[in-house]
Amino acid sequence: MEIYQHFRKEEQPFIDQVLSWQEEVGRSFQSKLTDFFDPREQFIFESLLGNHPDFTWKLYGGNEEAERKRAILAPYYEEIEPEHFELTLLGASYPEKFVTLSHPDVLGAFMSLGIKRKKLGDLVVKDGVVQIIVASEIADYVRMNLEGIKKASVQFQEVPFDRMLSSDEEWEQVDTTVSSLRLDTVVKEIYRMSRQKAALFIDKGQVKVNFRIVEDPSFKLEAGDMISIRGKGRSKLQDVLGTTKKDKYKVVISRLK
After folding, report:
1. What per-residue confidence (pLDDT) applies to 217?
2. CA 88, chain centre distance (Å)
3. Nearest 10 degrees: CA dihedral of 65, 8, 257, 250?
4. Confidence of residue 171 (pLDDT cuts 50, 70, 90)
């Protein structure tokens, strides 16, 4: 299909899924609530649906700034409200003086229960408190089964959304140039390492692009791609602004402080 040429090959199954939802809603006149999308999936979803006259749609993850969001696709005449997304905010405290918890620690505890990432929204670990947005259908399961994270005992309870913590993430933005948009070249620039070391991280499966492991150093990045290296944090190829007279790419990159 012509539509595939605008996206990466590995994204075709997700594209097919969105198109099947569109067909299903158009046939049944029943709205479709999805699992959580990462930012790249949100971009694809928006690109495919656009301003289609037969449908209305919305993305929401607890607030407008949320990184991970569920989508609702509905017939054009329906009104979509925040409560339709079936989100639950869960919170638990832990003894910060005695236990240090990180985002990966908490996420790993959820995964150990057999919970899929697509059922989990944004996660904040801050000041002795863990908060996570989950699909409402798993909230009771989490409350009953997640009792410990690392060495900390926890008891998750539902929290009103007006008590949601902000993540306090700070991003540093830089304008620079790169010789190509290859993954190893951009990683080299962002993380200030040699291209050989960047390639080694990639070969070992320690680099993710848009939350998926990429093991090909020549993988071509695009504006908006999120990059992360295990133990070295997240970054983003914010924009590609063209080329210089020496055929280098002018890019805007941002990195989580």
Report:
1. 96
2. 18
3. -110
4. confident
